[in-house]
TrEMBL record:
<dbReference type="InterPro" id="IPR020612">
    <property type="entry name" value="Methylthiotransferase_CS"/>
</dbReference>
<feature type="binding site">
    <location>
        <position position="388"/>
    </location>
    <ligand>
        <name>[4Fe-4S] cluster</name>
    </ligand>
</feature>
<feature type="binding site">
    <location>
        <position position="392"/>
    </location>
    <ligand>
        <name>[4Fe-4S] cluster</name>
    </ligand>
</feature>
<dbReference type="InterPro" id="IPR007197">
    <property type="entry name" value="rSAM"/>
</dbReference>
<feature type="binding site">
    <location>
        <position position="395"/>
    </location>
    <ligand>
        <name>[4Fe-4S] cluster</name>
    </ligand>
</feature>
<protein>
    <submittedName>
        <fullName>YgiQ family radical SAM protein</fullName>
    </submittedName>
</protein>
<comment type="similarity">
    <text>Belongs to the UPF0313 family.</text>
</comment>
<dbReference type="InterPro" id="IPR058240">
    <property type="entry name" value="rSAM_sf"/>
</dbReference>
<dbReference type="InterPro" id="IPR022946">
    <property type="entry name" value="UPF0313"/>
</dbReference>
<keyword id="KW-0479">Metal-binding</keyword>
<keyword id="KW-0408">Iron</keyword>
<dbReference type="Pfam" id="PF04055">
    <property type="entry name" value="Radical_SAM"/>
</dbReference>
<feature type="compositionally biased region" description="Polar residues">
    <location>
        <begin position="700"/>
        <end position="709"/>
    </location>
</feature>
<dbReference type="Pfam" id="PF08497">
    <property type="entry name" value="Radical_SAM_N"/>
</dbReference>
<dbReference type="InterPro" id="IPR006638">
    <property type="entry name" value="Elp3/MiaA/NifB-like_rSAM"/>
</dbReference>
<dbReference type="InterPro" id="IPR024560">
    <property type="entry name" value="UPF0313_C"/>
</dbReference>
<feature type="domain" description="Radical SAM core">
    <location>
        <begin position="374"/>
        <end position="643"/>
    </location>
</feature>
Length: 755
């Protein structure tokens, strides 16, 4: 590792807290009774989560709880509390250090509402999949309840919901830009991304007697300040319309009270004011990133000016490399939101340590035999890596986990398989996944540490694969072979998303995958077929898909298997016109794809595509009021039609598609034949009126004549029922003999009567 790479304190090097004498608990306690059994009089940290408590490394509360436990802290869990009062938030008593609040593994609003803003009836992270067990905006609600329960206890918020709302963000559900969740929740500190480093550092410092307001420079944290820190250089990026000639500014902002922005390098140094540089002049300056921050447009500005919102989104994403990112600051009224640079990624031994913690690997016993769908899905899957350098604009993984891939060792992964064999009830020998955000970015990173330390690219694979990117899949291929060789393992599936543009760079990997790890169907995500839309997604063109399909078909044939690709596509994505969706539908029909599950674009917080959706601008390029405009279908009818193009084969979509094709002047695609997309209206009416085979007694809406056999059967059944009733037999009993099977003559007689 070169000197240009940032380093961090080794994750497991922190000293043990005094309470380590209590040892490891079978499960982190969720009640006072469980605490009593462990001999605890109090908890040092209490984690409040919107998910049911599953002690598994795929659940954030378990990872952070077990990590803190490994350093000697007593950690309790308040899972899915009743948020309507404070009673549930007091069930473990007052924590000695702080409350840690998370909405859970999913954003609470995405968990609760569909892309069409319809309420979901289920929740995969709840026993029996019951919906409605967590509030909307759970981080805000839980944090405020913790403050009400114990006013003097600090509250730390984190998880994906807090992480993606650390600055002002567009909120799809209210159709407005909202303040940083740190302001709305009244919490004391926000941890973003995978928070192991930040959480251990904050907890250690608090255990040493420091207050949270003293912890201002910990990576991966966001805090509230009254004023910016002194001794820094500020890059002013609050506008996009700088005049042609820009003069350098040397005075502090007028709103900083005198004496508030002062720091001293040592006791004898002079006061060091902030130095302000307008953004257009920053390139000529050699600035120390450790003493530089970027001023974003204020919440008040971005909430009223969508162009400034897109500009702010671009800055945030350009400052995501932990090796060169600078702090960000954004004014909210009289307060300043200060975002420290991202955390340093975990090294392989640290990743191993996190996943080797003593997880029970099952839900808490209090749920008894209740089924938790999310657990059922991942109980035999293994997370082998973190991060994603794909940069897909519609995805928020990068904003949360970062672009640097963090991989586990083979040994750690193989040990986890043995752990699954020993701990997962009813394990049959099937590993359901070896993956993570993607299945095939394991160990792939930049070949040059110095290049990576200075890189600000939004993607390592778009528009083409970077020449500095390692694309060698052999560590993954070797891992697959090792897992299959374990005694008691008969199947290892790969279920995480495959980056086929990377896979084609290593044919041996594709051969291994197709031969041994595809169960007939492999899901991949081209997302679209049209260049303009793909450019707004930062996804490769269909030429790469065709290349992968040829390899997939070749190796499937060599393996003697009949296997198929199942492609995923998105409708109504920013940049996607009706013409683009039409061309995609034609591509689908030409290739004989009839998708059942299709996606409509969902504007998740902080993603680049969400910035496009809200602003109509393209933040993949410098944003100005005259820069590239991005068309986005927002109207509910438009979104429905675009989704209908993906399901061109569904009769329920035909009328809308016909109307759209007529408006587009593409009536040539209406009619009958292989080169048509939807049938003409006359045939549509016939299809809709075609009678369905009826079950006995079931109304079908078919004509009287076509429904006659059902009428006859009903008449016979009713006659038998009445006879049973008069003979004293139960109404539901089965008739026998003549009652169950009337003679042919009686059936003919019944037909005559029915006429």
């Amino acid at each position: 590792m070169t000197k240009r790479h940032k380093t961090a304190k080794e994750l497991f090097s922190y000293p043990l807290y005094w309470a380590e004498c209590y040892g490891v608990s079978p499960f982190l306690p969720t009640t006072r009774e469980e605490m009593d059994i462990l001999g605890w009089d109090s908890c040092d940290v209490i984690i409040v989560s919107g998910d049911a408590y599953v002690d598994h490394p795929s659940f954030g509360m378990a990872v952070l709880g077990r990590l803190l436990e490994s350093k000697g802290y007593r950690v309790g869990i308040i899972d899915q509390p009743d948020w309507r009062n404070t009673e549930d938030f007091m069930r473990l008593g007052r924590p000695n250090l702080y409350f840690g609040v998370t909405a859970g593994n999913m954003d609470s609003l995405i968990n609760r509402y569909t892309a069409d803003l319809k309420v979901r009836n289920d929740d995969a992270y709840t026993p029996y999949g019951v919906g409605g067990k967590r509030p909307d905006r759970a981080v805000i609600v839980y944090s405020q309840r913790c403050k009400e329960a114990f006013q003097d206890v600090p509250v730390m918020i984190g998880g994906i919901e807090a992480s993606l709302r650390r600055i002002a963000q567009y909120d799809y559900w209210s159709d407005e830009v909202r303040r940083s969740v740190l302001i709305d929740s009244t919490a004391d500190i926000l941890l973003y991304g995978n928070a192991e480093r930040a959480m251990l550092e904050v907890t250690h410092q608090m255990a040493m007697g420091k207050n949270l307001d003293e912890l201002t420079d910990i990576r991966g944290t966001t805090i509230v300040r009254n004023t910016p820190p002194g001794g820094f250089t500020e890059i002013d990026s609050t506008r996009v319309d700088w005049p042609g000639k820009v003069d350098q500014i040397y005075s502090p902002y007028e709103y900083i009270p005198e004496g508030k922005c002062q720091t001293k390098d040592d006791e004898d140094s002079d006061v060091m004011p902030i130095r302000v540089i307008p953004a257009p002049l920053r390139r000529g300056e050699k600035l120390d990133p450790e003493k530089t921050y970027i001023r974003l447009p204020s919440f008040e500005k971005v909430s009223k000016d969508p162009v400034l919102y897109a500009h702010t989104s671009r800055i945030l994403h350009l400052e995501s490399n932990p090796h060169n990112a600078r702090a960000l600051i954004q004014k909210h009224g009289k307060k300043e939101i200060w975002v420290n640079p991202p955390p340093i990624p975990l090294e392989t031994p640290e990743m191993d340590g996190v996943f080797d913690l003593p997880y029970a690997r099952v839900p808490h016993p209090k749920y008894k035999k209740a089924r938790i769908p999310a657990y059922d899905m991942i109980k035999t899957s293994i997370n082998i890596m973190r991060g994603c350098f794909g940069g897909c604009t519609f995805c928020s993984i990068t904003e949360h986990e970062g672009r640097v891939i963090q991989s586990r060792s083979h040994e750690s992964i193989l040990n986890e398989i043995e752990d699954i064999k020993a701990k997962v009830p009813g394990f049959t020998g099937h590993i359901s996944d070896l993956g993570g955000p993607t299945s095939n970015m394991y160990t792939l990173n930049c070949n040059d540490d110095e290049v990576q330390a200075s890189c600000r690219k939004l993607s390592c694979v778009y528009p083409t694969i970077c020449s500095n990117l390692n694309t060698d899949h052999s560590p993954t291929t070797e891992l697959y072979r090792k897992t299959r060789a374990i005694e008691g393992i008969h199947t290892v599936s790969i279920a995480s998303g495959l980056r086929y543009d990377l896979a084609v760079e290593d044919p041996e990997y594709v051969r291994e995958l197709v031969t041994h790890h595809v169960g007939g169907l492999l899901k991949i995500a081209p997302e679209h077929s049209e260049k303009d839309t793909l450019s707004k997604m930062m996804k490769p063109g269909m030429g790469t898909y065709d290349r992968f399909k040829r390899m997939f078909d070749k190796y499937s044939k060599e393996a003697g298997k009949k296997q198929h690709l199942i492609p995923y596509f998105i409708a109504a994505h920013p940049g996607s016109s009706d013409e683009d969706m039409l061309n995609l539908a034609v591509w689908l029909k030409t290739n004989d794809f009839k998708p059942d599950q299709v996606q409509t674009f969902y504007p998740s917080p902080m993603s680049l595509a969400t910035a496009m959706y809200h602003s109509g601008k393209n933040p993949l390029k410098p944003v100005t009021y005259k820069s590239e405009d991005v068309y986005t279908p927002k109207d509910a009818k438009q979104r429905t039609v675009q989704k209908g193009f993906l399901r061109y084969h569904d009769p329920r979509n035909w009328q809308d598609l016909r109307n759209t094709l007529i408006k587009m002047g593409r009536t040539d695609l209406i009619g009958y034949g292989l080169n048509k997309l939807v049938p003409a209206e006359e045939k549509d009416r016939q299809v809709r009126q075609r009678p369905q085979k009826a079950k006995p007694g079931q109304a079908t809406g078919a004509s009287h004549t076509s429904n006659r056999p059902t009428i006859e059967k009903n008449a016979v059944a009713e006659k038998a029922r009445r006879k049973n009733h008069h003979s004293g037999k139960p109404a539901g009993s089965r008739a026998t003999g003549e009652q169950a099977a009337p003679s042919q003559a009686k059936r003919r007689k019944s037909k005559v009567k029915s006429r």
